[in-house]
Amino acid sequence: MYNEQEVSIIIPTHNRPESLGRLLNGLAVQDYPMHLLEVIVVADGCNNQTKDIVAALDVPYKLQLIELTNQGPSVARNRGVAVAQGTLLIFLDDDLEPCPGLVQAHVLAHTIPNRVVIGYLPYKSTKLTGKYITRLRSWWESKFYTMRQPGYRFMYTDLLSGNFSLPATVFKQLNGFEETLRCREDYEFGVRLIKAGVDFYFSTDAWAVHRDEATDFSRSLTRKRQEGNADVQFGRLHPDLVRNLYFASYSKRHARVRRLLFTLVFRVPAIGNLFAFILAAWVDLLLKINSRKRWHKYSRILQYYWYMKGVSDQLPNLVQLRNYIREYRKPLIPVPAVDINLDQGMQNAEAQVDQLRPATVNLRYGDQFIGIIAPQHGAEPLRGMHLRAELAHRYSWQLSQALALDKLTADSSKLNSQPQNILYAN
Amino acid sequence: MATAVLDLELENLPPNVSVSGHYTKAFVLLRYKGRPEGKIILDVRNGIVEITENLSKILNTVSHTLWQSQVHAYLNWDEKAVAGYTLPGATIAVCTRDRPDDLERCLEALMRLPDLGQEFLIIDNCPSTDATQKLVAAYPRVRYVREDRPGLNVARNRAMREASNEIVAFTDDDATPDAGWLKAILLNFSYPLVQCVTGLTMPLELETEAQETFEKFTPFGRGFRRILHSENTLNPLATGRIGAGANMALRKSICHEVGFFDEALDAGTPTHSGGDHEIFTRILVAGYTIIYEPAALSWHRHRRSMQELESTLYGYGVGVYALLTRHLLINKEWGVFKIAFNWFWYSQLKSLVKALLKRPGAIPAPLILAELKGCLAGPGLYFKSRKKLKARAAHV
To answer: Which residues form the Glycosyltransferase 2-like domain (chain B) (predicted)?
Structure first.
């Protein structure tokens, strides 16, 4: 049996009384001792309906309501934690429908003290259908699926704040969510968790259906603008991650589109607005005539336009943008790589990595060089289990060559014996 | 002129294999640790297939997949092995119509599958005798369901409704699934967006010229690499390369999201084929993924006579154009014109010219002409099929 502990569930909510009622009822039927459970609803800028719903509910756990005047999810979560009694905190979004084992699965997953557990959120869009929703669902499900795969290396972007848990002490040590952010506050918290060496863990057992009733394409554009805005602030807090941000990355992917968007947003905003208007109409038309490939392409450009618009809310002209990048986008600091040799067997190599937890590794097999696992900004330090994944995904060809050469030399040293089987003989 | 079909394990290759004297060639499936890696056609001399002599040839054919499998074996790596996944329950459905001999072989193969808690379902489609029912009665683990409305897709829909498990795996009555077939399929459903898995289909026998021709020009196999198909990687209207209904599995729930199989399509109706490829399109358009998994191996008995082969190819032509008609008619998919044009211009026309010039390795002209004839008839037959369907619905 597990170590039963007091659990506080914090739910920030913003005018979604029905969804909230469903979630609170779902928590009433959890397979967890109810006297150890406490739920804190933080109503952020809500009308009376939310208050009424919470007041009308008869639930077997301790339920508290805190009211705020539209201060954003970061503040809401921090206020919730301030009154929480539990040793384990679970954060849930208000539009979830939890499985009965959710709380227990979260508690069980905390087998080591310094861990954050991210729960699975299968995606169900109830009211809306359409191309954008299917794309969102694909993104959502593939994100969770990669986290489930063996040897996945967690990043700060994996801290999805909809369904996660961590010990109250860890939350308080890190001073909670950054209150100046209204968006990207989850990524920002994720960065500090990673930097503090907190272990990331993904649990499929702690699942809750994400019943999305609000998102559609036009809302996603508003959201993109907020993201652009928040990314600029995020970069100020974590200059080492500025190169990961879309507007400040120099990656060659979409370089032409990015250049066009820079021009439209920063140099000729009036034409930019006209461009966005026409592009929106074009995207609508593409959907109507089932031209999916083009729709994907142009709807993305439209989204990035609004993202850049958000960036320009913070940095109104190109001079400021340039200064920002000059100030915050620091050159990479070289990290010393650790040499890992695979010729003593995989388990040996893995144990070595587990012990050292390096940021980057040079992989060798005997005296043959296989490849580098490059340092990744904002990712957890390497573990032994990451080796197999990297080798299988990126360096399988190099490894097969190394193994074949190894086999050949071994065979030729046994002069008279014929190669017994054809392994690695190609 | 007959070709022996062999199934060899690379880790355990015999120096030579003796086959019956009437074979002049051997079609060899090559596996590594049970996973299909490649196929090769070797000569037969005096009833002997020389393996050691042809070793470099064999290694060449598997070189593009084998190294990866070897590395994965060395690393003990399986990308499908995600945390917290247990194999879902499966129902194996066989839709059959008046082919008890084939069905018996199929049932024997199904009985040899390892027990993963699967259910067996035989849908007897509009039978003219009770031979099938009698045959199935001899297998106590198999459930017999009779569906009186004719049409392969009608039978498939019945199977989707009757199945009591989450995954419905279809095999044709003239196919015999390999022992690892079901498990290989089920492993792929670990990804929630995967709604359909198709497998590799190899020839069961190549005894006649028709069978050899079929395997040479229109094989069911889609290569030896596992492929994830989604809207981002494949035009959803071009579903030919995904696989075929003879070896596919779907989630039962998909029918409530994208609809059931179109009953105006496929065998038993005027449209002859196309029902499987049509639903693949709807699955992809809905944003889901279809995986082609070569480890899900099944052996299919191709048509034995040239007449049958010709009518099969005519049926393909009809089926493709019928399903394109459906896409245009029901889903307003204007892209079908491009698909039809590309298929004709880059594939059919080339083959036809080659055949008429009698180039070596060309498909026999009557077969292409049959296919083209089918294409021309396709749209009309689709309307005819729908009319028939409506008339029957009104009659009942």
So the answer is: 91-258
